[in-house]
Specification:
The chain is mostly beta strands and 312 residues long. The chain is 0% helix and 48% strand. The two termini are 19 Å apart.
């Protein structure tokens, strides 16, 4: 059987990145996230992924890890391409939500000194008790969960001044919400997700690439485990989303709950869900190649370690 060769690109801000497999199969990559070469290989064949052309505008250096091996019966999805450098990696603007007064402060980032001059017009109204500001990776939009996560405020970012303009306020569909909710935006700036510990649910939205307006995904909000909390986390290949279930009772208490992400961003609970963790799992982190995951268990000061099946 033939299998495909692919993996994940992170840190890309420039244009013109070209990857190559086995010295001939070229693939132009324009954004962070998963990639797959067009040419499939038979099982038992060698593969070797390299960078043919480095990105420019801004100039970056991309390196490949886990890029060579021999194919087996399953598709290869573990190649990791990491890009760094370029003035864009310094960042132009910074934002913080003020939970106590319902506003967002905006700052420009001085690329030489790192100081933070205040953006003109800051602070900006941001609903009631906002928790944090999440930026789309493309730098065009900012999102903040307010009103205990029952609403999302969406803003466009002026690319010259950093000023925020409200796009709209959107209901998440949560009834109870949770304290200090935060939003996860995918690498393509196409979808966002947030969890509600008070509703045992995860909400998902599609992001309009031109305006930043939000549209609830089909089936949102999605059922999660008991006490679904923390920031939803993406697997490095962008195919799966995970939340921490911090509830003290029920079949999914103190577990990791996972979803497969559809092409439209919708979520489907993966099979054999509710992976056991320690007491009060709080955060999850993946190795760049996606092979392993680690969860901090804040209730008992431990770390739970897992292997990750890239297909399921």
């Amino acid at each position: 059987a033939n299998v495909t060769i692919g993996g994940t690109v992170t840190g890309l801000t420039g244009t013109g990145l070209v990857l190559q497999d086995n010295g001939g199969d070229n693939l132009t990559v324009t954004q962070n996230g998963a990639f797959t070469f067009a040419t499939a290989l038979a099982s038992g064949k060698a593969y070797a992924v390299t960078v043919l052309t480095q990105p420019t505008s801004p100039s970056q250096t991309c390196t490949v890890s886990g890029g060579s091996g021999t194919t087996a019966s399953a598709n290869v999805t573990s190649v990791a391409v990491s890009c760094s450098g370029g003035t864009a990696s310094v960042g132009k603007f910074a934002y913080t939500a003020n939970n106590g007064d319902g506003t967002i402060d905006g700052y420009t980032i001085d690329p030489s000194t790192g100081t933070l001059p205040v953006v003109s017009g800051s602070p900006y109204p941001d609903g009631s008790a906002p928790a944090a500001v999440s930026l789309a990776p493309n730098g065009k939009f900012a999102f903040s969960a307010s009103d205990s996560g029952t609403k999302i405020q969406a803003f466009t970012i002026d690319q010259t001044s950093g000023a925020l303009t409200l796009v709209g306020s959107y209901s998440t569909g949560f009834v109870n919400g949770s304290t200090y909710p935060d939003i996860a935006v995918d690498a393509q700036s196409a979808h966002l997700y947030l969890a509600s510990a008070g509703d045992d649910e995860v909400a998902g939205f599609a992001i309009n690439p031109t305006t930043g307006a939000l549209t609830a995904l089909a089936g949102s909000p999605y059922a999660a485990g008991s006490g679904a909390g923390a920031i939803p986390a993406f697997s490095p290949n962008g195919k799966f989303l995970y939340v921490m279930d911090q509830g003290s009772s029920g079949a999914t208490a103190n577990t990791v709950f996972g979803y497969a992400i559809g092409s439209d961003g919708s979520l489907t609970a993966i099979s054999a869900n509710g992976f056991a963790a320690g007491t009060a799992p709080s955060w999850i982190a993946f190795t760049p190649n996606g092979s392993f995951a680690y969860v901090s268990d804040s209730g008992e000061d431990t770390i739970s370690a897992y292997s990750v099946n890239a297909t399921t």
